[in-house]
Amino acid sequence: MSTAAAPDSDLYARRVLARMSDFFTDEGTPWPRRLWDIGSVLALEELWQAGHWQAHNVLSPSACDWQRNELKALIGPDIGLGDRELRKEINLLLQNSLVDPSPERRRLKEIISHVRAGYLDRWATALKAEEDKRVKPERFSRTAAAHLLDLGFSASYLKSWAARLNHSQITTVEIAESAAELARSPARQHEVLVALEKVPRRELAEPLDHWRSKGEVIAWLKENGHDSAGIRTGGGFLYRIDALDPYSAAEQARQLLDRMVARSQYLRAHRGGVVPVPLIWVAGHRRPVPLAPPARGADVLSLVHEGHLYKVDSRRGRIDDALELAAAVNRGALAPAVAGGWAAVESLLVHADDPTPTGERSGKAIAADRMAAIIACSWPRAELTTLSHRHAPSQPDDLSRAVEASTTNREAARLVVKALEAAGVEALALTKATGYSDQAAAQRMVALLAAPRAQLNDVTKAFRIAMRRLYRTRNIILHGGATNGVALEASLRTAAPLLGAGLDRIVHASYTETLDPLDLAARAEVALKLVHGETGLTTVDLLEPHADQRAASSRNQQRD
Q1: CA–CA gap between residue 105 and residue 99 (Å, rounded)
Q2: What is the pTM of this model?
């Protein structure tokens, strides 16, 4: 691969890599800049699997039909699905129910194997052939990033890969070719060491082939160039794991350990007594990997901003219960995290007096749609607030001085809106460290301000799909008794930051207005219909109470 910079690498390629870096940053990327969706190949695999669960009455026919119809619309502009026979066959299959067994479902399985092979190569070919008609950098970066993550590469490994490409100043086509080459990489075997501080019933571990004694653990660490000083261990397990990269291998070992620790909860003596060393070692990888995984990005910052982090007493409300249910979302094992996360959504956004839903809203899917509306309405303010902090001219200007003098995020966001409406992206002096990512965000806000209803409709649809995927995954776990769904990890990866954003707005409304979550959802649904219309509702104020509501809320709080 050539490392010489071509003209397009100055802008298009830099924006692609900046957004990929956002998507591959486990902790630190604000939720509006995260990856909200999965790739087309995994979406087709998820749909194929849904037919099995429909046949076993775990997923309803209406839920599977909704999933299939949404997928038809989403894959339309995906270049990786080809432009002739392959795409035609996919579109024909998606016209049919894919319940198990059926001829269409069997054909879909065959089509998926053809789609997966060469998916990113087709993107590279298209980008090379139509330099003047390229899709927006946002679409390509999202598509390629989602596909690589769906294949099983870890975010940490992919972030290093993207950083190397950025340092080399390569072209857009070379980015696509590198991604395609990466996608063709086979899994390889990694030696992964998991050490235990406490090993109850050691006699059950010692006969196992992958068991290593304390002395063998220390010897392995030294042989592989790791520092063994301070490592207190009673032994451990040396696994041989097929994975695409060392971090992915460590994650698989982490999941094996989670299962082991869960089993130890059933001991009569030494209950829960399996205690691991807080590091995982991978042969050939120079640094140990922390046992604690990166958080999945479910942040509820209102607990800090409203001063409620430590305000816990004997009284329990629905918000308390929901926060406790969803606590596993950030770092818990996959199945409990999905189950608890969805339980929080359902507990807050479903009511016994709801009409019995039919069709696409059968079951509790209405809760996913309500949460999606809340998240969509919080999206503009969140992104505009970040941009207000990132505007950093070398010499203070009118905007920076006004932002500094503002007393609320709402006021700062309005100032950025005014600047973007007047001068577009050029109105912002963005910091060098995050410039390309910030420019992409500013461009999304300019597009939003130009066509607020259309843009909000698009993001609402994306959030609805992510939340409904969480709901389906939860049903497969709880009603199907299966924790090996093809989209289990991807469902949590995409939904967790969105869930945190929705809970954050629900918590904020509860603490500042004593507003019920269902009332907040109603406000969001109405706002999406009225924005930029005759009422004067702006994109900054989608979740703000009307003046009459603010007055009533103030009176209620005074009475309380």
Answers
A1: 7
A2: 0.92
Q: Which one, of 277, 258, 291, 284, lies nearest residue 191 by Cα?
A: 284
Which one, of 440, 401, 399, 454, lies nearest residue 423 by Cα? 399
Mean pLDDT of the chain: 92
Instruction: Clarify whether residues 22 and 151 are in a common domain.
Output: yes
15 lies in the same domain as 153: yes
Q: Which domain range does residue 123 map to?
A: 7-183
Nearest by Cα to 251 from 493, 29, 559, 6 = 493
Q: Please state the rounded mean pLDDT for residues 396-419.
A: 96
d(CA 242, CA 409): 47
Average pLDDT over residues 426-441: 88
Same domain, residue pair 165 and 197: no
- Sorted by sequence, the CB contacts under 8 Å of residue 402 that are 6+ apart come out as 415
Cα-to-chain-centroid distance, residue 408: 28
Question: How buried is residue 442: exposed, middle or buried, by Cβ count under 10 Å (0-12/13-18/19+)?
Answer: buried
Asked if 496 and 413 count as a contact pair (C-beta separation under 8 A), the reply is no
Residues 252 and 174 in one domain: no
The count of domains in the chain is 2
Three-class SS of residue 224?
Answer: coil
The last residue of one of the domains, among 290, 309, 331, is 290
Would you state the pLDDT for residue 60? Answer: 92
Question: Would you state the pLDDT for residue 481?
Answer: 95
DSSP-derived letter for residue 135 is P
In a domain, 553, yes or no: no
Same-domain pairing of 40 and 107: yes
Of 371, 324, 320, nearest to 345 by C-alpha is: 371
Q: What pLDDT does residue 423 have?
A: 95
Q: How far apart are CA 226 and CA 283, in angstroms?
A: 9
Buried b (16+ CB within 10 A) or exposed e, 452-479: beebbeebbebbbbbbbbbbbbbbbbee
Position 145 pLDDT exceeds 80: yes
| Per-residue model confidence (pLDDT) at position 379 | 98
Query: What 3-state DSSP class applies to 446?
Result: helix
- Give the pLDDT score at 360: 55
The token duo for 282 is: 């991978």
In a shared domain, residues 175 and 57: yes
Distance of CA 82 to the CA centre of its chain: 27
Contact, 39 vs 493, CB < 8 A? no
Is residue 554's pLDDT more than 60? no
pLDDT by residue (tens digit) across 116-138?
Answer: 999 999 999 999 876 667 888 99
For residue 379, give the nearest of 258, 517, 275, 527 by alpha carbon: 527
Evaluate whether 365 touches 397 at the Cβ level (below 8 Å).
no
- C-beta of residue 191 within 8 angstroms of C-beta of residue 238: yes
Closest to 188 in 3D by CA, of 161, 153, 223:
153
Beta strands in 273-378 (DSSP E): 275-282, 289-290
Task: Point out the domain boundary residue: 148, 183, 218.
Answer: 183
Are both 143 and 159 inside the same structural domain?
yes
Is position 54 within any domain? yes
Residues 250 and 147 in one domain: no
